[in-house]
Automatic annotation (TrEMBL):
Protein family: Belongs to the outer membrane factor (OMF) (TC 1.B.17) family.
Keyword Transmembrane recorded: yes
GO MF annotation terms: efflux transmembrane transporter activity; porin activity
InterPro entries cross-referenced by the UniProt entry: OMP_efflux (IPR003423), TolC-like (IPR051906)
Subcellular location: Cell outer membrane
The protein's name in its UniProt record: TolC family protein
Keywords of the record: Cell outer membrane, Membrane, Signal, Transmembrane, Transmembrane beta strand, Transport
Amino acid sequence: MRIKITVLLLLCSVGMLSAQLRKWTLEECVTYAVENNLTIEQFELDLENAQIDESDAIGNMLPTLNGDARLTENLGLSFNPTSQEPVSTQLNFTGNLTSTLNMFDGLRNIRQLQRAKLNAISNQYRLDDLKDDIRLNVANAYLQVLSNKEQLKVFRAQYAVTEQDLKRTKELVEAGTSPRGDLLEIEATAANQEQQVINGESLVLISIVNLAQLLQITDYENFDIADEEFDIPPSDILNNSAKVIYDKALSFRNDIKLSQANVEVAEKDVQIAKGAYFPTLSAFVNYNTRYSDQNLVSVTDLSVIPFVDQLWIFDGLAYGFSLNVPFFNGWSTRNNVQRQKISLERAKLDFEQTKLELESNIQQAYVDVTTFDKAYQAAQKTLDARRIAYQYAKDRFDVGLMNAFDFSQAQSRLDNAEADVIRTKYDYIFRLKILEFYFGIPLALD
């Protein structure tokens, strides 16, 4: 039994360790961020409020029904409601049931419902636009972790090669075939590369923490991304002009839809404000009844009429219409209409500004893709040349035809070239993904 328990505990420990060392893919990071972001949760609550406003607008067009009841006891001189004789105490009950219906209010209720629907749509676009921004931010942070990890691998590989050179140089110096200056130079190069490894590890850790914070994960020690290397994905996005990409983005981008919906909401606000110029017409019906312990069957018979009978005997019904005509209200209606018109013009300007910003961002993204593609290609050519130069220098250094200082310079130039390739590679991938995102292509690295 003890053995079974021990095995079970070991299996649980392995399971917990596996869960802690989970490696996150880009898709998992994006999905988790969208589902757990606090700002998104706040925007979702705003959307729920907007949907409740729509229900309120529907309710404003329905008739109301309200009832009230009052039970009072009078102490002191009062009058019998039937005989009108004075009495010292009296117990009274009254009840009312009233229904009202707004028949016409300048179409404000109808337009209020239309506005509520548009506002709910606007809040949905606002929520979706935030999700788009989060997806891009997470993708950028994820690619930064990948870039830093790839650079760290290069630093470690370079340091391993230099350690081999350092070991061999020590042997040559001890054998008297190489000057001690070569050893000192190699040691300096090794120390510099060791520092690069330490800095690289710090950059990886910082970028992982930044990504975890975007995902609102606080267990940084057990958070990491999948250990994958990504080549530049194939894409034909540049087969489309920036104008074509912009025209398509106008048809589906949530920031554009949000600005356009805000214009429509502002137009409804103007119509609602103008509705106050019109008279309002409402209908009402009221049913009322009462009871008193002083209501007698007759003057000679002092028995009180039963409670239920009095409710039927003394009930009444009233109904009618109410018309309210706004002749003058201190220009409040006119001023409110003017305010809403100003808000409408501001919404139109915001819409145009959003379109200009989108066009500018797409133009910039288009130029960035072209620029970083060329930068990556140039960095790759430089790296190929540096590798050949480094191998040539190493061959000369190995046979004693190059001193350690010149060899370390060749090594340094190779290190910089490899770092430039990694940096420009991920810069290009991210800009490419941004441009594809504007074209409606989902974020993915495969």
